[in-house]
Known about the structure:
Blueprint: H1 2-6, E1 14-17, H2 18-28, H3 30-35, E2 39-42, E3 49-52, H4 54-71, E4 77-84, E5 89-95, H5 103-106, E6 115-118, E7 123-126, H6 130-140, E8 145-149, E9 155-163, H7 186-200, H8 207-215, H9 225-237, H10 241-247
Parallel strand pairs: 2-4
Antiparallel strand pairs: 1-3, 3-9, 4-5, 5-9, 6-7, 8-9
Amino acid sequence: IQKSENTEIKLNLENYSFNKILSDVLLEVETLYEAKNIQIKNLINQELIVRCEVESIKRVLVNLLTNAIKYSHTNGIVTIKKEILSETKVKISITDSGEGISEENIKHIFKKFSQIIAKKSGSTRSTGLGLAFCKKYIEAHGDKIGINSKIDKGAEFWFTLTKVKINQDINTENSTHQKDKIKLNTYEIEYLKPFVDQIKKLSFFEIGEIKKIIDNINDSSYKNISSWKESLKEAIYIGNQELFNQLTNLDQYE
């Protein structure tokens, strides 16, 4: 933070899949939301390409998601969504299910070392340097970051990014999952059917609940199921509902 205040931040910008960035970040914070049984709802279910410095935006998302998970109640919900503001701007928001922050304290939230007390619970919301970092690097992109919150209503942190058209010089090597054909034999299909039936009862956006079912699938005795599991996890993490539907349609393998 000190370095960024004393020198101009130089960003290495590229056109990149936001879905892939978010997928990597969700894997990084996986143990945190699983420990509290937090339900992650990723409502970004269409390919979104943004112009950004990838590692900086990953760190911003890790900070915001870590805070959202930390201050949500056990068994709570954290929601990730987008809002298209214009042809070139998109707003990303992360909403938690915690105690919220008072209007008076919101103005201090992005300051270095600030700490906000959630009065009703008596707990401390420590912003430390994480949110100060987020503000510095989002603003270095020429974008904005903010918060909407009320006591007992949770908190919504949001930031904007430059959106680009899908066909504009995308870093495809690290873009979303390629729809490789997964092969399953008859025995593997029969084994998977009860798990897929459970998955289909859930909303596509219920990442945490779907992942619990996937993790209960034993792939040690079935050579093709491991690839199927990893592809299905990636589909929900990157918000690719088309790929998700394709993978859970077991009839296609017969």
